[in-house]
Amino acid sequence: MIRTDLPDCFLRPWQESDQAALVALADNRKIWRNLTDLFPHPYTEADAAFWIEFANHSAPSCHVAIVHRGSLVGGIGIIAGEGNARFTGNFGYWLGEPHWGQGIASAAARAMADHAFTHLRFERLEGAVFEWNAASMRVLEKAGFRREGVLRKSVFKDGQLIDSVMHARLRGD
């Protein structure tokens, strides 16, 4: 379990008992629209079952559930780079819409980044945020990430070719 600086909020491994709550939260177009195409829409029970199994056996990547006040509220993770990028992790998270705007994502992002630099091999974490998602950019900034630049027309999402904004945090930041 990874504690956050927000009371009653922590990160933990995914559990089979999370499946129903995961489907209820993740089957939301607003969430899908801000994540890579690896995140399906609609989000089904089969997707949840696959994810829970995969997430718990994905080392050196790390994927965990975000829990607030005893309930599953989202997920956060780091996909490990390979080869020359083996010390870089692709950082991402999502939060169920009923839990937006409560500081949960920022607390989870801070805790996960700190964990990655303390207990995992990562020297650099990077997160590319779609141009329309200013709230997510702010979450990363609150977690100590710095805006590094705009990747022009780098993402095709929801029928549009859009920019993404790269943020990164280094172990020494």
CATH architecture: 3-Layer(aba) Sandwich
Number of strands: 8
Question: How many H/I helical runs?
Answer: 5
Query: Any idea what the CATH superfamily is called?
Result: Gcn5-related N-acetyltransferase (GNAT)
Strands across the major sheet, in which order? 1-2-3-4-5-6-8-7
Main sheet: strands, sense, barrel: 8 strands, mixed
Query: What is the CATH class?
Result: Alpha Beta
**Percentage of β-strand residues:** 35-45%
GO molecular function: acyltransferase activity, transferring groups other than amino-acyl groups
Domain N-acetyltransferase: 9-171
InterPro entries: Acyl_CoA_acyltransferase, GNAT_dom
Protein name: RimJ/RimL family protein N-acetyltransferase
How is this fold's topology laid out?
Blueprint: E1 2-3, E2 9-12, H1 19-26, H2 29-32, H3 45-55, E3 62-68, E4 71-80, E5 88-95, H4 104-119, E6 124-130, H5 134-142, E7 146-157, E8 160-170
Give your account of this protein's structure:
- By secondary structure, this protein is of the alpha+beta class.
- It has a single domain (2-170), classed as Gcn5-related N-acetyltransferase (GNAT) (Aminopeptidase).
- The protein has five helices and eight strands.
- The chain has helices at 19-26, 29-32, 45-55, 104-119, 134-142, and strands at 2-3, 9-12, 62-68, 71-80, 88-95, 124-130, 146-157, 160-170.
- Helix 1 (19-26) crosses helix 3 (45-55) and helix 4 (104-119) packs across helix 5.
- The chain is globular, with a radius of gyration of 15 Å.
- The relative contact order is 0.15.
- The mean pLDDT is 97.
